Backbone:
């Protein structure tokens, strides 16, 4: 299965800065692609476009040859956000977050080190690292074909970062889920990804 | 005795306010005839043990009249505020979810109503509806929803941008699911607190227009009527005729306010831990 | 705060010589010394019961003049409270214990009020802490219209390559990169002896984060004591002199940056695990998670995840000096 971006341009408002211009990228579901770039190169925008949170002004995003927005219901491209505190409803116990996902397997929950005791807790009672595990588990549902990870470990301590990435690499390899990892840490990208893309270089080529 | 913690104090305040208001309502609705009963053998008695609030120029017991008046005002206030709050909820949500055109119309109406002084609008509506009970309730209901509607609209708009709401959408959850599961838990406390805080407003406005003669008719011993009648006799030195009903109107309003604030403290996650 | 009596009599003794005394003290005494700091919150469970949540259990750290010390802990571990505790701006349901000394003298509530914003400055996490309705210039000058203050601000802005025009902007008009420099400028208006930076690089990319950290390094090089509170150990290692590692409510180790070059020179098993988890040092991890403050084990908070844990780790564990650094582990040598 292929995820493609074809000649996508994007700006937030009609007079705003052109964040992406004529951008193209294609990846297989067996790949793990690492994206690096300084801030301002539209990494987060790209992630949100790829996972359907934003619609491109021009160009198209195709999953398996079909436009991404033609997929009704569960979106096969799932994104995990940088700040887990905002990704879960503060008024609901965390068990609800897992239930919202697409039949999350016990193996995923255990693999991410989520303890049964956390299910009844509210988000304010858990640390960022623990919340991010829930965020990840929720995104790893049965129908997920691609996973977009936007700086998911930036706010976490090094051990949690290592734990999460080890699990994630193993999981996406086993289930043939394509992974796009965005990080400011080139060493981390080296460890995790099979292909590296520097948005800066792409940008120069386009111009 | 152990010092009460804040949540216990808040709950105590809430319980006391609620109890007072309920007692006034029940007592008031039982004493309809007593409030009208005249007895010239006991007219113009200043406050004493038998008649703690005194009696008026027709020999009516002011305590009974005050309670009856308050209960009428409270019931009108609650009805009007509840109708108003429902309008606010529906329009607030519609404004935030039904697109730009609907939003700008509703926002315009909100600004319009908030731009005109309540009391003026109330008088106009009440007179247009032919005064009386219906006029007052409709008047209060129609004028009080904008501030709450605006609050709900802002809340829904903000919620719509929260990542967890967007994520739920991408996980294939229906609009209905998101509204009930994610938005309602946020809106409900706001709504309930807003509703309770509307009561004192509604009561004050009801008694104001009644006092001014645009509201209920004089047969009904609403607190506004009691007060406006008392004004005529105030210059003759019968201070108790206005003091006690006025004081209790203020107390009622304050207690509703305390109730609203207590609820807010209990329901708002930001302050529960204090 | 406990131990308040300790130094107040000293300070009262010689008001006139206070300045000279302080100058002498600055030579040997650390600018900031925090001993056994604990901060807990009173919270409600469901219902009426109140519980105390010990977010910081036992925190020790020392900052000398001209030195940059980083307190490193994972996000959400409550380390920001350290800054609020020192500045005396904790919320009212918080309860603080321990002892804070500033330039050799106890930092009591009245004293911090006088020093805050002058000798001791806190650089907040984001511009959300600035007054949104006040222009940048007057805000940093604190409304002072004196030409001296204006000149000084001009100088500071030049130093951080900020336009004079920035003074006329409102906080929301600043770009991301300007934010950080404006926030640091606030620290420089007075001559601070102690600068506390709370998570100065949230979500910044590497280059920008390094630049922000470099600004704090400069402050230290100018003679101030700088305390940076951050979750980013790798970044802290690039600019700080010493690192205090914060884990589950306690500082488990205080080590110089050089100690982080090799695993063997580190002291605490948690610090060693952190070291091994760095992508460049093998990217290895250990099982488990940092315990939630409500379910902390007695004794060593790292014990459940520690390979060398024994029965004696459940007891009281001292923060002691080992090889020039400090460690809270009975096995370290």
Residues:
């Amino acid at each position: 299965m292929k995820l493609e971006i074809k000649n996508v341009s994007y700006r937030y408002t009609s007079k705003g800065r052109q964040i992406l211009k004529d951008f193209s990228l294609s990846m297989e579901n067996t790949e793990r692609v690492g994206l690096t770039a300084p801030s301002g190169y539209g990494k987060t925008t790209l992630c949100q476009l790829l996972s359907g949170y934003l619609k491109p002004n021009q160009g198209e995003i195709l999953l398996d040859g079909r436009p991404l927005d033609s997929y009704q219901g569960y979106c096969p491209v799932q994104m995990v956000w940088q700040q887990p505190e905002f990704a879960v409803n503060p008024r609901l116990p965390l068990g609800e977050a897992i239930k919202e996902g697409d039949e999350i397997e016990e193996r995923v929950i255990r693999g991410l080190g989520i303890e049964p005791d956390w299910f009844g807790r509210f988000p304010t009672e858990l640390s960022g690292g623990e919340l991010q595990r829930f965020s990840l588990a929720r995104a790893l549902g049965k129908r997920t074909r691609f996973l977009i990870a936007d700086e998911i470990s930036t706010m976490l301590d090094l051990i949690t970062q290592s734990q999460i990435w080890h699990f994630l690499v193993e999981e996406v390899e086993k289930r043939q889920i394509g992974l796009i990892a965005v990080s400011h840490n080139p060493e981390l990208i080296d460890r995790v990804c099979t292909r590296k893309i520097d948005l800066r270089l792409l940008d120069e080529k386009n111009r | 005795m152990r010092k009460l913690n804040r949540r216990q104090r808040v709950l105590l305040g809430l319980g006391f306010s609620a109890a007072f208001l309920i007692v006034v309502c029940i007592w008031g609705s039982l004493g309809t005839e007593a409030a009208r009963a005249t007895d010239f053998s006991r007219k113009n008695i200043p406050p004493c043990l038998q008649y703690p609030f005194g009696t008026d120029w027709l020999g009516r017991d002011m305590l009974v009249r005050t309670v009856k008046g308050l209960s009428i005002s409270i019931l009108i206030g609650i009805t009007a505020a509840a109708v108003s709050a429902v309008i606010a909820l529906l329009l607030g949500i519609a404004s935030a979810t039904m697109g730009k055109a609907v939003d700008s119309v509703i926002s315009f109406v909100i600004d319009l109503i908030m731009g005109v002084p309540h009391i003026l609008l109330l008088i106009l509506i009440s007179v247009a509806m032919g005064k009386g009970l219906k006029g007052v309730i409709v008047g209060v209901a129609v004028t009080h929803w904008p501030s709450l509607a605006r609050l709900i609209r802002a809340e829904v708009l903000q919620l719509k941008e929260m990542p967890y709401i967007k994520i739920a959408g991408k996980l294939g959850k229906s609009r209905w699911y998101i509204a009930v599961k994610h938005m309602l838990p946020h809106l409900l406390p706001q709504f309930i607190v807003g509703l309770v805080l509307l009561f004192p407003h509604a009561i004050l406005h009801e008694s104001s227009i009644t006092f001014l003669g645009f509201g209920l008719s004089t047969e009904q011993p609403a607190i506004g009527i009691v007060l406006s009648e008392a004004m005529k006799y105030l210059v003759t030195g019968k201070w108790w005729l206005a003091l006690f009903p006025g004081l209790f109107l203020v107390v009622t309003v304050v207690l509703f306010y305390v109730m609203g604030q207590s609820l807010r403290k209990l329901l708002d996650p930001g302050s529960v831990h204090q | 705060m406990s131990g308040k009596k300790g130094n107040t009599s000293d300070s009262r003794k010689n008001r006139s010589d206070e300045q000279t005394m302080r100058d002498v003290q600055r030579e040997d005494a650390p600018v900031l010394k925090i001993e056994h700091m604990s901060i807990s919150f009173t919270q409600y469970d469901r219902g009426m019961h109140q519980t105390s949540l010990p977010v910081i259990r036992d925190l020790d750290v020392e900052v000398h003049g001209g030195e940059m010390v980083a307190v490193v802990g994972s996000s959400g571990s409550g380390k920001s409270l350290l800054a609020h505790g020192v500045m005396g701006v904790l919320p009212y349901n918080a309860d603080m214990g321990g002892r804070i000394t500033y330039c050799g003298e106890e930092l009591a509530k009245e004293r911090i009020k006088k020093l805050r914003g002058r000798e001791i400055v806190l650089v907040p996490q984001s511009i959300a802490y600035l007054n949104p309705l006040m222009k940048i210039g007057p805000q940093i000058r604190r409304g002072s219209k004196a030409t001296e203050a204006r000149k000084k601000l001009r100088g500071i802005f030049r130093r951080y390559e900020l336009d004079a025009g920035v003074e006329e902007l409102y906080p929301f008009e600043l770009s991301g990169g300007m934010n950080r420099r404006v926030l640091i400028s606030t620290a420089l208006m007075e001559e601070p002896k102690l600068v506390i930076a709370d998570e100065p690089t949230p979500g910044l990319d590497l280059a920008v984060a390094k630049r922000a950290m470099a600004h704090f390094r400069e402050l230290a090089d100018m003679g101030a004591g700088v305390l940076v509170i951050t979750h980013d150990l790798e970044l802290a290692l690039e600019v700080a002199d010493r690192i205090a590692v914060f884990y589950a409510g306690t500082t488990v180790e205080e080590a110089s940056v050089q100690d982080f070059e090799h695993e063997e020179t580190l002291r605490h098993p948690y610090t060693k695990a952190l070291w091994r988890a760095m992508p460049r040092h093998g990217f290895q991890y250990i099982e488990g998670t940092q315990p939630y403050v409500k379910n902390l084990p007695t004794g060593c908070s790292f014990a459940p995840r520690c390979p060398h844990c024994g029965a004696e780790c459940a007891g009281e564990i001292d923060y002691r000096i080992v090889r020039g650094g400090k460690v809270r582990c009975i096995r370290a040598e």
Observations:
- The interface with chain B takes residues 41-44, 48, 50, 91-93 of chain C (CB under 8 Å).
- The longest strand of chain C covers residues 50-63.
